[in-house]
What we know:
The structure holds two protein chains of two kinds. Chain A is mainly β. In chain A, 0% of the residues lie in helices and 50% in strands. Chain A has strands spanning 3-6, 11-14, 19-21, 23-26, 33-38, 44-50, 56-59, 62-65, 75-77, 86-93, 101-103, 107-112. The N and C termini of chain A lie far apart (41 Å). By secondary structure, chain B is an all-beta fold. Helices cover 0% and strands 50% of the residues of chain B. Chain B has no helices and eleven strands. In chain B, the strands form two sheets. In chain B, strands 2, 4, 5, 6, 9, 10 and 11 form a seven-stranded mixed beta sheet that branches. In chain B, β7 (64-68) and β8 form a beta hairpin. The interface between A and B is medium-sized, with 24 and 23 residues.
Amino acid sequence: GNSVTQMEGPVTLSEEAFLTINCTYTATGYPSLFWYVQYPGEGLQLLLKATKADDKGSNKGFEATYRKETTSFHLEKGSVQVSDSAVYFCAHLTQGGSEKLVFGKGTKLTVNP
Amino acid sequence: DAGVTQSPTHLIKTRGQQVTLRCSPKSGHDTVSWYQQALGQGPQFIFQYYEEEERQRGNFPDRFSGHQFPNYSSELNVNALLLGDSALYLCASSLGGLSTNEKLFFGSGTQLSVL
């Protein structure tokens, strides 16, 4: 079936540290992949996406590369800021006539000054 | 330009009761999807409405039902509430029906607590 597995949190980093949040997926074919971010008290916001193999999505210093060989879409940022503190969700779009987003459980990131 | 708005923001109900949650999509959008986000979990797809019809449905029981109005706003109804229905309910809007889930805009959600 369709699923997304994310690195379990919470993750606590110091400002300017390097961030990696692992994400792997199970799906039919090559679905579009997404990272969403949820700040406290807010809805989900699309952070970045990739629609085909080897695509790199990027936004606000975050990057993720679609790796079909390893069915992964790991999120990275070279230097995190306190304002990056949020919950991050990896997701993929199902295919085959029933298009919906399938989310991972989320990873809470806290960045300390 | 208002984004996706949901009401109420918080709601407390008791087991067995019924609840209605409301969503107004982003201006210009005609498709509304509903997601349930339990504490510590990712959102799970409930259903999607387009052209006033339910187009897709996730693995939720018939106690969960919805409606879309001619102005594209939507309601989510849950009957016979269970403790396990306690969650954040997210509404997301997009344009054009099935193929547009890549451009979803989410609301801030309604936090439902069932006691």
